[in-house]
Design brief:
alpha/beta, Rossmann fold, Dehydroquinate synthase-like, alpha domain, 7-stranded mixed sheet, 49% helix, nucleotide-binding, lyase, cobalt, magnesium ion binding
């Protein structure tokens, strides 16, 4: 069938855009670091303050004194918005520029076009010392240190929200900071925000695990590194990074896959944290597949009613699903993920280097969740999957890094995480919109339970999506062509599209225990067109059975 590939919403088309825009507090080193980055890239550099002085024909302190701050902010606003539309280098803004609403909107539009706004998060003491040494800053008239601290309290939350790249520069020379900026500009970052959550970033790229200490921050003394045995190579790297940063590391190995995601395993970890004196200011790092990051998040949410945690997913499935969104939990005899909490991480580091160690079958199962995000919102994902199906199905970790497929996979991760972030931001606790992320999961979770979790999650969800499509077709929401498209796309990726190892009565009983169910009423997530989903409540029993029979043939 023909699927309209609409892609993600974006702003209006623009002409030349900056390679990067740098923001930060006075004294953060925006000009010096920006010049270094531009030099390394062979690009032009522009400093908003210098350009303003050129335009008004006087130094900024003199302009402030003669015309006042409001007049200056108007000039600054117009120059920045013009430069965002017609400059192809590295652009550094004045300290207060992002506080102007029109500038903030302009930066958001720039980001929606794929731009990078870099927040240089300098150490306050270092930044104040540089700001005082530089002089000529009207905003610091009077008690400069006290004024800087007041401005920092006002501006830091805005800067964190505005920027989609956050670079901590404490103790770094301008050259070292520029190299760090360069590395992070090469990464893909999804900024997750929401009215009920602390914002955090999902960093995607080769080597992003190096940011582990930056994300954890200076407060924790002890860090529990929770991981499985098969990812020992990656946990060794994480442990080294943590110890180099000065943390005391408790290495906690859990059983692989769903066997490690139980109350018994969690209880053993709680006992160990108690024995080792973990406090509320200490932290958890979850490293491994989806089950490991789910468990680590659950431990973090429940230990002393919540401690800081960072996820380092090592499988495609974990990168696009379990590690992001704040859903944590364990399985019980009654079903999957029935005990848990909503608790967001401080950050997620999806280091694609870890994918190179994956067997083919573990990589391809993750494509089930990727395809799901294409079906429910971003249909550009479906186009990419179609175009690269043969390469993805034949994934070989030994040749992955440095190949053309690496960038394809990074884009798929970024787009899939963006879909999840959009739903999570609107609905952290799965009261409405977030339930749409469960497309294919009602049947998928039943299959996992009946198979005693021998089936991998992405494979079960693939079959679950075909089931949901069949059900939607039977009830007139979609046509048979879209059902066939589900089958052809998923099978082209090496994913299963049928299942016949259980009875309908057993499946139905588990569906009634699904988290979306309300009382005795079954609820499903179904498509009514590509890229758009709706809730289906209490469908006719004969349709529920017929859809099951169609995936069982």
């Amino acid at each position: 069938m023909n699927v309209e590939h609409t892609g993600r919403p974006a702003g209006e088309s623009h002409g030349i855009r900056p390679y990067a825009v740098i923001i930060g507090m006075m004294g953060a080193g925006k000009t010096r670091v920006g010049k270094e980055v531009a030099h390394m890239l062979g690009l032009p550099f522009a400093d908003a303050d210098v350009e303003i002085e050129r335009e008004v024909g006087m130094k900024i302190p003199a302009y402030f004194e003669r015309f006042g701050e409001p007049a200056f902010r108007e000039v600054e606003r117009d120059l920045i918005l013009d430069t965002l539309e017609d400059f192809d280098g590295v652009f550094s803004l004045g300290g207060g520029a992002p506080m102007t609403p029109a500038v903030e909107r302009g930066l958001a539009s720039y980001i929606s076009d794929g731009g990078k706004v870099v927040y240089l998060m300098a150490d306050p003491a270092e930044a104040m010392e540089r700001a005082n040494r530089g002089g000529g800053r009207p905003m610091l008239n009077g008690d400069a240190d006290a004024r800087w601290k007041t401005l920092y309290k006002e501006r830091d939350p805005v800067f964190r929200h505005v920027a989609n790249v956050h670079v901590r520069t404490r103790g770094l020379t301008p050259q070292m900071a520029a190299r760090k900026v360069m590395d992070m500009l090469a990464e893909r970052t999804v900024h997750v925000t929401g009215s009920t959550i602390e914002p955090y970033d999902v960093a995607i790229g080769e080597g992003v695990m190096n940011h582990l200490a930056d994300v954890l921050g200076p407060k924790p003394v002890r860090v529990a590194l929770i991981h499985t045995q098969p990812v020992q190579r990656h946990s060794d790297r994480a442990r080294t990074l943590l110890r180099q940063a000065g943390y005391e590391v408790s290495d906690i190995v859990i059983p692989d896959a769903e066997r490690g995601k139980t109350v018994d395993v969690a209880n053993g970890i709680w006992e160990r944290l108690g024995d080792e004196g973990f406090t509320r200011s200490d932290a958890i790092v979850g490293l491994g597949g989806g089950a490991a990051t789910d468990l680590a998040g659950f431990i973090a949410a429940t230990w002393m009613r919540g401690v800081r945690y960072v996820n380092c997913p090592t499988s495609l499935l974990a990168m696009v699903d379990a590690s992001t969104g704040g859903k944590t939990g364990v399985n019980t005899a009654a079903g999957k993920n029935l005990v848990g909490s909503f608790y967001t991480p401080a950050g997620v580091l999806a280091d694609v280097k870890t994918l190179a160690t994956l067997p083919n079958d573990i990589f391809t199962e993750g494509l089930g969740e990727v395809a799901k995000s294409g079906f429910i919102m971003d249909t550009e994902i479906l186009r990419i999957l179609e175009e690269h199906a043969d390469e993805l199905r034949a994934f070989d970790g030994a040749t992955f890094l440095g190949s053309g497929l690496q960038d394809v996979v990074a884009e798929l991760i970024e787009r899939t995480v963006s879909v999840k972030a959009r739903h999570v931001s609107a609905d952290l606790k799965e009261a409405g919109m977030r339930e749409f992320l469960n497309y294919g999961h009602t049947m998928g979770h039943a299959i996992e339970k009946l198979e005693h979790f021998r089936w991998r999650h992405g494979n079960a969800v693939a079959v679950g999506m075909v089931y949901a499509a069949e059900l939607a077709c039977l009830l007139g929401y979609i046509d048979a062509d879209l059902v066939d498209y589900h089958r052809s796309l998923l099978s082209s990726l090496g994913l299963p599209i049928s299942w016949s190892n259980g009875s309908f009565d057993d499946v139905l009983a588990l569906m009634h225990k699904d988290k979306k169910a309300r009382g005795n009423t079954l609820r499903f997530v179904v498509l009514d067109r590509p890229g758009h989903v709706v809730h289906l409540e209490n469908p006719p029993a004969d349709a529920v059975r017929e859809a099951f029979e169609r995936i069982s043939r």
